[in-house]
TrEMBL record:
Recorded GO CC terms: membrane
Record InterPro entries: ABC2_TM, Nod_factor_ABC_transporter
Alphabetized UniProt keyword annotations: Membrane, Transmembrane, Transmembrane helix
Position of the signal peptide: none
Biological source species: Auritidibacter ignavus
Coiled coil: none
Residues that span the membrane, as ranges: 29-49, 61-83, 108-132, 138-160, 172-192, 229-250
GO molecular function, one term: ABC-type transporter activity
Chain ranges of the ABC-2 type transporter transmembrane domain: 22-219
Membrane topology: Multi-pass membrane protein
Subcellular localization(s) per the UniProt record: Membrane
Domain of life: Bacteria
Protein name: ABC transporter permease
Amino acid sequence: MTDTIRPLKPTLALALVQARFQLTEAVRIPVSILMTLAAPCMGLLFFVIPQREVATNPDSATQAVLALAIFGILANSLFHFAVEVAQARERPWGSYTRSLPTTETARIVSYLISSGILALGSVLPLALLAAFTTEARLSAIPAIGAVFSLILTSVPFMLIGMIIGYSSGSKAAVALAQVLMLLLAFGGGLFLPPMIFPDWLNAISLTLPSRSALEIVTWAAGFADGLPVAGLVGWVAWTALTFLTTVLLVKRDTDREYRLSA
């Protein structure tokens, strides 16, 4: 009788298995899911609805809701990825899963799927609340474009969160995520419209992934005439850079695990 070595399953299949277990673990802590859903709604309640000149203007209200949707995904991606990855690296179960025969890409994709679902889920209650309390409106085609662009532009935020998680401990990850969230939100024009920025701040803002997301989502929703070239270039650059950095950090973490076990 000879032993046969089974071939490794495809990357997507491995990622889906890991994502399913990560979602199951997240559901066991409902408070974290509720906070994920509530964060952008709180921003709408405190910063948009009280400003009646914004809430009652269809274009202004819709653009404000789009910016809050990006902020919700940004905040949830940074915190969930940074803290979850950092804590997983400190747990015995995390050490075990890093020793399993899988690829770095599968681990990254599993986090993108599981945490991405939770982050994108924060858009649903925000859209419902905005529909009943503001004049924000989108027709079918722009709405589909906005949702699709939100999914695409969320990838760099998730990867940045993973970089924080793989390069720091769980306590430091919380502090880093908080500081970076505020910098990206303010600098990217999610709290204040970029058109009021001075030239020097606008130049810096255009290099941030949050500004790229705002440019792309706003264009996809029909609020910009020309193709957002700067936003698309920034999104591609940030996605490539953060993905490569994440792969290197995951590989370093896995190699260190094998050295320690040896």
